[in-house]
Design brief:
The protein is an alpha/beta fold. The structure holds ligand C2E and calcium ion (2 copies). The site of one calcium ion has 4 residues, from loops.
Amino acid sequence: MKRSAVTSNATTPKPESLAASALLRAFEQSREGILVTDSNNHIVTVNEAFCRLSGYSPEDLIGQNPRILASGRTSRSLYAAMRHALDSRDYWEGEVWNKHKDGSNYPRHLKISVLRDPDGHFQGHVANYIETDASVEVADRLTYLAYHDPLTNLPNRLAFELQLAQSLRACERTNQQLALMLIDLDNFKNVNDTLGHQIGDQLLQSVAQRLRECVRASDLVARIGGDEFVVVLPEIESPLTAARVASKIQSNLVDSHLITDHVLYATPSIGISLYPLDGRDPGTLLRNADTAMYFAKSAGRNNHQFYTARMNEAAGERLEMENELRQAVAGISPTSSEFSLHFQPQIETTTGRVLGVEALLRWDSPKLGSIPPIRFIPIAEETGLIQPLGDWVIWETCRLIRSMKAQGITGIRVAINISAQQLRHENLILLIRGALACYDLTPQDIELEVTESTAMDKPELTLSILDQLAAMDVMLAIDDFGTGYSSLAYLKHLPIKRLKLDRSFVQDLETDANDAAICSATIALGHSLGLELVAEGVETEAQRDFLARLGCDMLQGYLFSRPMPFEATVAYLKAHLPLNG
Ligand code: C2E
Ligand code: CA
Ligand code: CA
């Protein structure tokens, strides 16, 4: 404050003290309740209106923490928002519920400003309270909605961010660790796509409920996206606590959920980052938890992973692979390609005859070496590269079928894997027609495999495309069957001929009674729908015999042959075709 140049004398009060007394009167006579705290958050003064509004006398209040006015009805997230606004802007305004001395709760419109001395040092707060009417109920509801997810009633992303920032400050002060868990549900999209949003919503509610049950009341559980949840464990002693909670969440979520008459599963993939080890600010912690979650997913779902710096290296490797893949796809030409096709025979169970082969894509990168498709196909799908790459697979397959025929091999159907994006592209029908015509092939020369989840996604569009393909007489198979949530009613409407039983069920056929039961039920069910069953990944004679007993129509797997390059395939077929004759 600037010093006045007017010197004091006995009769004229200093302008400063005039102002001060006016201020004092304004304070005392204001109709707004005013409360002032010091830098230790102790009440230093209150005005008359405040005493009237709260029922307390100045003696009751002075020296106390304003906490004694809290009703317990105002949400934690609102307090977090308040603290955040005060920290960042020195000001907050909103509706709160306070407790009257007589115990009743009353709504107030509250404005808080931070008091600072001329040098900017924190000196306390001044709070103005105004009586509000019943409309505060509405305001209250709006505040609630701003910080909560209406579906699950969990705090939403905004509330999560505010509370995480606040918990981090607390951990910094107390020198303790914090764990941030990012939880993504496995296969949730399948449920939503196959059974509809209403069922999906109920599943999310059920998951939210279970997550809440897994943690202490002081831990935060929030929903920050479709099927993404976070759990914040503040002030933990060691990462072991986080591991324990993650295991508890897994075992709690692994039990099925009964939603209307559906038995559903929603296992979690959990990524965990720790403060201060993996980051000190919300952004870094969330990013690292996300990286860890991504690893949990690729480690086979229903598991948790702690973030490690190594994961970022791996993310760098992934980026490198993406770049290499981009160049490889751009470099495809009629005469050369880093890509090639291998073929794996499909055997008729009862006769042992070879009825077809499946075309499987291979990538030999000059820089990265030979990369298995489970590593590069997902990247191709994420980046859209699967479109040109998939087109190439179709053209190349047709070219090689022509070459096979030229070498006297006939009556072999070649199965082509089609990814979700290819199936939805309006071009697919034209492309297949064009490639068949170009190499003078018939629709019976090929078969298209679409995965179960692809077939169940966007049912109407999928059905119309599959119908057009079937109308062309192209045989359609559902790949990886048993891994999704196909509904029988829907399956009946698809123009498919074959189900390919996923390898994971065949693998444990002899040891896992559950898998054996799934295999036999699927085969029986498929047959009752008039479908042919193909078992993938048959490696042992015991598996073959078991599947034969169940009446599985076709078998494919290392027991018969690994996927082979084209030349070897031709030799294999030539050797086996006499058997076919
Ligand atoms: P998929 O369509 O389920 O293909 C079967 C996979 O199982 C192949 O792996 C095959 O080599 C493997 N396999 C076959 N028999 C056995 C066995 O007895 N034991 C074991 N352990 N594995 C067996 P591959 O070639 O590594 O392909 C992996 C996946 O990559 C394929 O799974 C498919 O989803 C995808 N893929 C491959 N080629 C293409 C393609 O041209 N287009 C698209 N969109 N996806 C492709
Ligand atoms: Ca396949
Ligand atoms: Ca498969």
